[in-house]
Amino acid sequence: MFKNSPLYRSVYAAWELCFDWHLPMAMRPDPDKKSARVEEIVNPLYFMPIFGALAGLLALIAGNILFYLLPQNGASVCFAILLTVLGELRTSGRGLALCVTFFDVLTAQKSFSVARELRSTSLRNSTGLIALLLAIGMLFGKFMALFLVARTTHCGVASAALVAALSVEAVLAAEPSASGVPRFCRRARAEFIVAIGGFLLLFNLIFLALPTLICAGFASVLAIVFMNLFINLTGGIDSDDMTMTGYITEFAVWLLMAIMIA
Fold first, then answer.
1. Taking a C-beta distance cutoff of 8 angstroms, is the pair 170, 200 a contact?
2. Torsion of CA 53, 193, 246, 173, to 10 degrees
3. Which residues pair with 232 in a beta bridge?
4. pTM for this structure?
5. Are 63 and 79 in contact (CB under 8 A)?
């Protein structure tokens, strides 16, 4: 069957890296029929540019439709809401929950290492008013940043944020090797993944202003620097650390661009 072919398995593995929610069982490859040469035949990372390109194109299409149907401010509001929701779906809320509960535990006078251990992957498991206020604040901040970006009609910026987040996550997965990540990530070279990010940024150069691309790259560099400090403090990272870092990077891209536009 096609879904058990090396090509389909590679696409599925790339999907797993890009999105934290799984496809229906009927669309997943059969684990009992895995080819021993899948990783050598097609590297799943080769499909990552497709996801970034699709994100940019879909953002442009959705933006053009909204701005054609609605006044500028109304279209900007709808577009910002749409991208905020889609951004949270990309991590199934995990990134937001990890960030919020991490800072919530820190504000409870817990140590850094304890805060890392007590993080929750679901906001429903978070306790206290601070966690709720942090979640609302981060979502509102992302919405306002997206609103300002949408008003400038640079709708392809969705892909730039996705590129920055995925590049940082992939670099962290490659070096050092994190626990709980797919095997193909551990074997990937950081330089190769950064090259993919550069390809996607060049793709978005058609739609985005140069300052926007600089912001995306700057946010990625900052995320890697801070994550290296985090690794030095904790001695290692896991897949949740990567997810949280990707979320923060995505948020940083929106924030930096909003500051420049404002």
1. no
2. 140
3. none
4. 0.80
5. yes
